[in-house]
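Sample intake sheet
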Amino acid sequence: MDLRMKIINNTEVHICMKKVDQTKMTRKKPWLPWAIAGGCAACFGLGLLIAMALPAGNSNGSSKELAKFEEAYSILKNDWYYAKDDEDIDSRLIEQALGGMTSLEEDRHTNYFSLEQAQAFKDSLAGSNVGIGVSFYPGDDGQMIVKEVYVNSTADRAGIEPGDEIIRVGDKEAGSLSTDELVEYIKSHDGKSLDLQVRRGDETLDLNVTPGTFDSTVSERVIDNVGIIDLSSFSADSGKDFTDAIGRVQKEGVKYLVLDLRNNTGGYLSAAEQIASSFLPDDTTIFIEDLKDGTQKTLKTDKKYAQIDFDHIYILQNGNTASASEVLIGALKDNMPDKVTTIGTNTYGKGTEQVTVPFDDGTSLKYTIAQWLTPNGTSINKVGFKPDVEVMEDEVSTVGYAPLGEEDVLSIGPDTVAPNAAAVQVYLRYLGYPAERSDTYFSLASSEALKQFQSDNGLEPTGIVDNATFEKLLEVVGRRLNADAANDKALNMALEIIRNGGMLPAQENQEASSQDSGQDGESGQGDDENAQSQEEHTIDEQPVE
């Protein structure tokens, strides 16, 4: 039975906190707070088709190509000297052959997944975690400050709000546990009653919650009578949660919506279809599939979803906005161009669609079946969407770093080259320490700057980046980024445009100047940015509980 599903996704798997790992990737925002529950993930493919096994194809052994493959396989299995040391040489040769077969220069999104990679990919599409349903970051006094509350989660039902400070969880003081320990402690109470003590301003609240499974893709809030919805991926439940979030902000009478798609690398087609149907009339084209045989298929909105109207929609995007996110941007921009403004940097540019086919042994093959086009017939593959209003991100939010495994030992001394040296130097400079470079060469001056940081944070001032120093640096930078709303330039630009009646902050002066000089004002935009690598973590992510 063919149970395949289409996928619109940009990355194989993505984890919280941008680190460099081909199979594990990060999800939204520079310094996403820790989520009291578990990992992050996302994928872009257009729906998601899954099969129990590949359909039987033509395995005619008489073909020259197959005969050559079989001969090479036989030689390596029987005559290769080192085969004697591998008890599972058959499986190894086939696995590596499949990996090579899907390493296609023109298509990085066609992949063969090992058992572990296939499971990670599957988990990445789920969007679900276990916990209370908040993301958080550590405060100066050991408390955990809530950054986001996910729609329809336990925390959402309990009335927890962004900005609340979690000071006690069960019988544990929040400050007595590391973020990872706190997440695991809450997860250990899955389905069990758990007391929380929360500080909100001058008030202390005693709450009782029951940790459980929640979807960590949709959160909403209202600022200055503007609805803000953060959509971090397109999971199986994202469409429903997004509809609920839209309903909430509409009840508060907001006329303007900010839709944050930054670092959203995609997900299920069904979720993208439902969300697009919430904005567009029935039978409106969402996108067009351009198939291998030259035919085209059109996906349209579903009439069962009620449309919600806003005076204007502002979409935040960046180099990690990809796949299903770009489908949504294209659908809204092409069908309602006068009511949608995009803000940020160029999107990733993934305009292809994949199908994932699992094999009986749990491994799987993901391959490209089509290119998708916007309703106006435009391909954005390897090009992306240029923003209407360009707002560049600071280097502290875009520099990537490699994750540290449990057994990894980090040691970056002066006058050395190391992958994480770039992030260390950028983070030090952001904190006000005189690190002089932004590349992978760790200079003597940067080592001296690091000594100052180490001394200020109770660490031995060696000038060498070790595990403890690196983790402390991430913690301090993350705390500052999360606490300072001024860091979010794209969001602040959207709010400023709304306050200015739809005009750019400097546009009034520019138009006045143009009238005085008798010339029309023109707004220029910078060159397109290359899409940021999806293989790094950035300091944009925070724990999810």
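Comment: Residues 1-6, 11-57, 508-536, 538-542 have pLDDT under 50 and may be disordered. The CA atoms of residues 179 and 341 lie 37 Å apart.
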